[in-house]
Amino acid sequence: MNFEQILGDLKNKIYYPVYFLAGEEAYYIDEISDFIEDNVLTDTEKEFNQTIIYGRETDVLSIISFAKRYPMMANYQVVIVKEAQDIQKIEELISYLENPLDSTLLVINYKYKKVDKRKSFFKQIDKKGVLFESKKLYDNQIAGWINNYVREKGYDITPKASAMLTEFLGTDLSKVVNEISKLILNVPEKATINDELVERNIGISKDFNIFELQNAIGTRNVLKTNQIANYFAANPKENPLVKTVTILFGYFSKLLIYHQLKDKSRNSVASALSVNPFFVKDYQTAARNYSFQKLTRIISYLREYDLKSKGVDNISTTDGELLKELLFKILH
Hints:
- It contains 17 helices and seven strands.
- A five-stranded parallel sheet has the order 2-3-4-1-5, with helices on both faces.
- The chain has helices at residues 3-11, 26-39, 43-49, 60-67, 94-97, 120-128, 139-152, 159-169, 173-184, 195-201, 210-218, 222-234, 241-260, 266-273, 280-289, 292-309, 319-331; strands spanning 18-23, 50-54, 77-82, 104-111, 130-134, 156-157, 192-193.
- The chain is of the alpha/beta class.
- It folds into three domains: 3-134, P-loop containing nucleotide triphosphate hydrolases (Rossmann fold), CATH 3.40.50; 139-201, Helicase, Ruva Protein, domain 3 (Orthogonal Bundle), CATH 1.10.8; 210-331, Zinc Finger, Delta Prime, domain 3 (Up-down Bundle), CATH 1.20.272.
């Protein structure tokens, strides 16, 4: 079952005796678990029939003991196990999974780990209940996810605002949703979230951020690039070199792809680079400024300075100085 199917069944009061929610993306796990916690039982029923326990404070025998209880003055009891990845020998739960109580909803939150669905333990869960794997999104999927999420909430968002959120917040969906919620509080209903709103409310410097650095490099604006580099050097905690290099690596990798495209029409480029068509003109400009041969050298520089930022062949040079050296090599 996927996320939408699970929530759809829960909203229609179609329940399963076991929900094993696993995977590297915590957001979907929390959404399903929180929905069950908030909606399956009434407030009165929760008093006697809802139990929340934590992996570090429990064991398999205790979980089975809770799960085997019958509800009091309710049709169901809910047992939620949070941080279940900390439980020793969790696969010993199979003795309960072979014959779970239909009146119990046992919800197991097994975060940040993948599961081997070939094992009998997980096959048994899949047979009796819901086995859900919450997968981390790739970097190139985040902007689209943000756009869809904002639309579902009844708002719109500009391509630049979406790109800024993507680059500033990364792939942690819980963090992304939290920041979008803050933005929504600051705009009228059905309004558009733009880059100015993002800058004002999420602590992104209007002129000195990774998005503006990328644009300055793409247009070979040496002055602007150096200004941003100085700002990053003065604020290393907010602008770690490792993150900057990673984003620039993605940017220049896209430019390499652009040079090899036969069809350089707007929609074709957007599709090949996995970017919004709004940004295609920026890649066209940058491609004119950086030949294929120059780009291959830049990729080599980025790998070199990624290692240096991690201490390889670098004993004392600061991240700020390394960034300035890297940008000089890129631009010249």
